[in-house]
Amino acid sequence: MTNTSGTTSDAAQHRSDARAAKGRRRRTVAKTVLALFALLLIAAAIFLYWPLHQRSVPAASNDKPVDVVLVGGGIMSITLATFLQELQPDWNIQVFERLDGVALESSDGWNNAGTGHSAFAELNYTPELPDGSIETKRAVGIAEQFEISRQFWSHQVKEGRLSQPSDFINPTPHMSFVWGDDNIAYLHKRQQALVKNPLFYGMQYSEDPAQIKAWAPLLMEGRDPAQKVAATWMPLGTDVNFGVITRQLTAGLQRNPNFSLHLEHEVRALRQNDDKSWNVTVKDLKAGTESTLKSRFVFIGAGGAALKLLQLSGIPESKNYAGFPVGGQFLAFQSPAIAGRHSVKAYGMAETGSPPMSVPHLDARKLDGKPVVLFGPFALYSTKFLKHGSWFDLYSSVNHNNVVGMLDVGLENLDLVKYLMGQARLNDDDRQAELVKYFPNAKREDWKLVTAGQRVQIIKRDPEKGAVLQFGTEIVTDQDHTLAALLGASPGASTSPPIMLDLLKKAFPAQMAAGWEARLREIVPSYGRKLNDSAALTNEIRRQTSDALHLPYLDVPVGTSPAVMLTPPPAAKPTETRNKDEELQAL
């Protein structure tokens, strides 16, 4: 007889053991997952709150603070130093630059567009409003700023700090070039709206292929004769090499014994003292040693690195910002057979569905003393904040104050993310296909791909919208007026003098009221006035700067007054966006 009861009990025991083993495995897996999750939370907390404590740094080597420390040796810091040296020549000014020369990042000629942004050609400055009219306010504002830059540079030429003007600024007409009925109609309305303003007097418009070819032969040669095109042409445009300006102004500053430039020195810590002065800890990258200098005022003008340094300061204002880095690439033509035949800056229009930063331009430049033509930009995504920076720059700028805002802005700007991903997949054939839309006869062997500088767009905490992606530049100051930082990108270098004038007003209000303003009117004769309000003032100032900088000049007829929109169009409800100043992306 078979013992079935024993067999049944054994099977039941096996099932019970199996269930128990399965339960233990589940508990083990659950514990492992919980442990990993806990570790991730701890790692995230350390990452977002790092450093958990301030590291020790050397004590300040000077009891009496120096007057000013400038971080970064680019166009912004050197422009500010030049203003300060003229306003207060007895002040001790110290500049620290991490590279082995000034103007080697975004101020270098190969690393920026160098247009001399004056809104003559940049179509994103003049959006079409819902009623079909053209908004010109921003374009006029940028043109005003560039006129301040011209005055500042003219003064420096007269003072001997800048040499032969053709070394750094050259007449280069600015063009806008479009095709398609809608774009042509827009461009004509734009020209009609802008030309009423004194600052834009002289801008010409044409739909005649022969005329456009005379202005810019490379745009028209090889083009389908049946294609309808239009262009504006402004003879007062310029090409500017900000690297040359920075280096020459630095040489001028060094003639004053109260100015010191420290190359290959990187600022590693900023600590505020009880008396509101700052301890600036700097590493000598050649010697490998650290030292600390006490200063009454600190300006962070380190380009893309400014955000991280602002965060190091610990001022409350620093908690409102994050950064989003974007690089750029251009196709460079250096052959005299091509570069010698294109003497304008021709800006196009971003294609439908593309973000404004994709605005293409065929750009005549003078670099290293020779004519060059650049076409682009092609976006280049990188986690670096500087061209010579670290791949960890973006990650090290993320902390508990800005991480939520960064994620929020990323979700709100998926079109920009998609665009950058598409740009990353481009090959030379793709770039050539974009090029021939503006230079039909271009051949692949004519150009080489060059990488320009990095820029870091601002992500700023808005009290109403939350975090917003902001384009342009912004000055951040502390409440004690002892520290200031410049964040953001365009129009940047072209408007460095007016940006630094704004900084002087924000950071040195007492000195401005006590006499600096009067001195500034000697450096910038139009200070406090708007050129576009008066044809006579426009003529007076432009005649002065054109003579000093050897630039072309046009008399604006007396009586020309700014275009004024007497009856504003009804405000259309805007599409909710987390982007501020989108048109600045184009620059």
List the helices and strands and how they pair.
Blueprint: H1 4-49, E1 66-71, H2 75-87, E2 93-97, H3 137-159, E3 169-171, E4 174-179, H4 181-194, E5 204-206, H5 209-215, H6 217-220, E6 229-234, E7 238-240, H7 242-253, E8 259-263, E9 265-272, E10 278-284, E11 289-300, H8 306-313, E12 321-333, H9 336-339, E13 345-347, E14 361-367, E15 370-380, H10 393-396, H11 403-412, H12 414-424, H13 428-435, E16 448-451, E17 455-462, E18 466-470, E19 473-477, E20 483-488, H14 496-507, H15 509-523, H16 535-549, E21 579-580
Parallel strand pairs: 1-2, 1-11, 2-8, 4-13, 11-20, 18-21
Antiparallel strand pairs: 3-7, 4-6, 5-6, 9-10, 10-11, 12-15, 12-16, 12-17, 13-14, 14-15, 17-18, 19-20
What is the gist of this entry?
The protein has 587 residues and is α/β, with parallel strands linked by helices.
Protein architecture, described:
- The structure is a single chain.
- With 587 residues, the protein is an alpha/beta fold.
- It has 16 helices and 21 strands.
- Strands 4, 5, 6, 12, 13, 14, 15, 16, 17, 18 and 21 form an 11-stranded mixed beta sheet that branches.
- Helix 2 runs parallel beside helix 7 (242-253), helix 3 crosses helix 14 (496-507) and helix 3 (137-159) crosses helix 16.
- Residues 564-587 have low confidence and may be disordered.
- Secondary structure: helix percent: 25-40%
Beta-strand percentage? 15-25%
| Overall pLDDT level | 88
Number of contiguous helices: 16
Global structural class: alpha/beta
* Spatial gap, N to C terminus: 95 Å
The description of the largest β-sheet is:
11 strands, mixed
Global geometry:
globular
Q: Taking Cα atoms only, what radius of gyration do you get, to the nearest Å?
A: 29 Å
Beta strand count: 21
Low-confidence stretches: 564-587
